[in-house]
Design a protein that fits this description.
Elements: E1 4-7, H1 12-17, E2 34-40, E3 47-54, E4 72-74, H2 85-89, E5 93-105, E6 112-116, E7 124-134, E8 141-149
Parallel strand pairs: 3-8, 4-8
Antiparallel strand pairs: 1-5, 2-3, 2-5, 5-6, 5-7, 7-8
Length: 151
Amino acid sequence: MCTNFTPTKAQWVKDKLCVDLPAPYPEESYPGFAAPVVVKSHQTGRVACGLAKFGLIPAWAKDDKIARHTYNARSETAAEKPSYRAAWRHRQFGLVLVDNFYEPSYESGKAVRWRIELASGDPFGIACLWDRWTDPASGELVVSFSMLTVN
């Protein structure tokens, strides 16, 4: 399961999706880091791109520590899991815009970091769920996301 990736900074986003990338954000993203996510409003049909934290924090969470365990959601069970259920029900789907992502390979007997990318080198989107959470300590509104995976 993906634990880190390289968020894209490519002009491709403007050319293909007709949205501007927000700035700034880290060169690589890990749980808790910000990355660009594209969403489409159900009400207006407007497409927008903004920053969200990697690791979904459900609206009911007491703190942001849950994000260390919610950066990937299995598509087969996301609708049933408490952390993802509301985002799934409200169709809060988006695309995380990446140049590549990393997975461990155990062929050598040890975890070796493997970069996975398109053969063309073009950026691509990974399906995600997103949610809004208000930090009770600061009142800050935090948008966060979880990549959707398949078994």
